[in-house]
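user: can you give me the structure for this one chain? tokens are fine.
assistant: on it. calling the predictor now.
[tool input]
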Amino acid sequence: MHEFHHERARALLANATQIVDPQQVQDAVKRVADRLNARFDLEGATEFPLVLGVMGGAVVFTGNLLPQLSFPLDFDYIHVSRYGDEDRGGQLVWKVVPRQNVAGRIIILLDDILDEGETLAHVKQRLLDMGAAEVIIAVFADKDLGRKKPIQADLVGLTLPNQFVVGFGMDVYGYWRNLPGLWTIRPEDLKRVE
């Protein structure tokens, strides 16, 4: 774990550039909520989805999204981590598996960002293997990597450039998930604290 002081966490943000302001963030969350409500808030509907938040990145997106959903739902969370070389896949370990029975359920899988997509692809397949009827992936942001990913999100709040972005659940060395807007960190500043 990278250990550095409060001042260094602030220094990372000192040269950062805000690319999405708090209002645009909230507009993106509302877009996802509106799409989900259009599908599930139907008179006479009998299917209530199970919403799963991918911790810890999805905590802010989940907390902002859930109060805007106008249909009954069950909620739980999952936690997966990669060990080893994160850039090359590494070993995916489930720290928290879904505790509710997913068999036969429609799952809404929430995450903060669709980056490389390997983790979400694995999680979706695991849920389908457990008998989920359908897995709908809703992400706050999709990072434009300029290449095909192993999985596509069904619902996307906004698309981000291929830069290091923090805020609204996304962190830099564990810091700044709490920012209400999105900021890009300069690569040279990231190298400085490694």
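assistant: here you go. Residues 58 and 111 are 5 Å apart (CA to CA). The two ends are 10 Å apart (CA to CA).
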